[in-house]
Amino acid sequence: MSNVYQSWASEGCKIHYVSNSPWQVYPAIDEFLQDNHFPKGSIHLRPVSTQGLLLGRPGQHKYESIVAIIKDFPQRKFVLIGDSGEFDPELYARIYHEYPDQIAKIFIHDVTSERAMHADRQGASRSDLIYQGVKRLMSSSSNLRRSNTSSEAMDVFVHRDIPKEQQMALDPRIPVKTKLEQFEHRMTNVSLGMRHGVFSVFTLASQLLLVIADDS
Q1: Three-state secondary structure readout of the chain
Q2: Range in 25-29, 40-44, 127-131, 189-193 the model is least confident about
Q3: What is the pLDDT of residue 123?
Q4: Assuming Cys at both sites, which of 27, 37, 52, 148 could form a disulfide with 56, CB separation 3.0 to 4.6 Å?
Q5: Nearest residue to 17 (alpha-carbon basis) of 58, 56, 84, 62
Q6: What phi, psi does 174 have (nearest 5°)?
Q7: To the nearest whole number, what is the mean pLDDT of the chain?
Q8: Model confidence pLDDT, tens digit, residues 147-183
């Protein structure tokens, strides 16, 4: 990622590092940036206070810091870079709609979908094992022996005093919205109302250079 930042800095871009990390970790962050050859830039970390810990909203410091930078440099265009792990997409969308003329690009590093697909596969496997286990249990249960098949017994069990949503979640035969689909739906919602080409999701840092090159 540092090579992307270095490339932008060589073109005259100014870098602002904004994080929700507390100021106490500044030495470690500064050392990390230097060791990994990130270009120099301003660093904006979160002040720690009891009130902030108790009443602070997630991402509020990052939002306020970015807005302050935008207001300090009203003549500049900004590229916002974050990841999908927390609130960056929603936060950047909010900033875009408040300052659309100053936000040139929003890049979100996809750290979610690969893990989501892995979780979906594990979840499907667990659901299938649970389903098969319950079928075996129900087929041997005396109060359900009147059913012609174990599948019918399972149907009796599933449709008794269980909400419909939970039935769908427990029954692997019924397709449910996966975590990957939820991620894609989230990204689509976040980008609603933005100019074409402003919002991008990336997995490799090299993709950022290609996007910027295509736009130049």
Answers
A1: CHHHHHHHHHCCCCCEEEEEEEHHHHHHHHHHHHHCCCCCCEEEEECCCHHHHHHCCCCHHHHHHHHHHHHHCCCCCEEEEEECCCCHHHHHHHHHHHCCCCEEEEEEECCCHHHHHHHHHHHHHHHHHHHHHHHHHHHCCHHHCCCCCHHHHHHHHHCCCCCHHHHHHHCCCCCCCCHHHHHHHHHHHHCCCCCCCCEEEECCCHHHHHHHHHHC
A2: 127-131
A3: 57
A4: 52
A5: 62
A6: -100, 120
A7: 76
A8: 444 444 334 334 444 445 444 445 555 455 666 777 8
**Co-location of 133 and 32 in the same domain:** no
Residue whose structure tokens are 């100019």:
195
- Name the one residue in this structure whose structure tokens are 């408040």: 98
- The tokens of 22 are what? 């507390």
Phi, psi of 58 (to 5 degrees): -55, 130
Question: Per the structure, how many domains does the chain have?
Answer: 2
pLDDT in tens, 53-63: 555 566 788 99
Residue type, 209: L
Instruction: List the domain range (segments joined by +) for residue 186.
Output: 2-113+180-215
| CA–centroid distance for 24 within its chain | 26
Model's pTM, two decimal places? 0.69
Q: Which helix (H) or strand (E) holds 178?
A: none
Helix (H, G, I), strand (E, B) or coil at 181: helix
Q: How far apart are CA 71 and CA 134, in angstroms?
A: 60
103 and 200 share a domain?
yes
How many angstroms separate the CA atoms of 147 and 37, rounded? Answer: 69
160: tokens are 């008794």
- Tokens 């970790």 belong to residue: 25
